[in-house]
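anyone seen this seq b4? input:
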Amino acid sequence: MLRPGSTYAGAAAATSDGGWWILLRGPLSIALAIACLISILTRGYLAPGLVAGGVIAWSFVPLAEVAGLAVVWRGRRSEITFATAVDLFFAGHAPLLLWLLASVIFWHSVDPQPPEIFRAWGLSLVPITAWSGYVDFQFLRHVAGMKRPGWCLFVQRAVCWTLFVAVFGGVSLWPGLLEELGVR
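predicted toks r here
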């Protein structure tokens, strides 16, 4: 988390071939973490049914990230398998997961929630987003060996967020967006 460039350079040199488990453990751990955090936020404890359903319901988030990574992975200069790359990519999610955990603890303990606190919480996402982008930039630079890691990061994020908005917003997003734009 603190030195992603050197950490990724060392991890890329010491990786294995990968396989199905290596490919799936990162995305599954992110879906599980999201489901657990939602269960704690809504129930105050880990409800097994809510966690299991949450893993299934929120699996589209890591799948969207994998899709974005797959799009930019074609331009790699690395000999690392895609499965290993996915595993290393999701290992870089620690700063965001720690922020999400802190957010769940915070929102679970604050009552009532005045708008000023919500704005301050939203602002706390800015440095985490920047740091997560930096970690992913270092991944693309050191693990994938991308010539233009900044551009690849932009493409990966564009694919990921487009899929996220399409799935999360679903069919209700477009009519609401058109209404906001004044199109009837």
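The mean pLDDT is 84. The radius of gyration is 18 Å. kinda curious what u guys think
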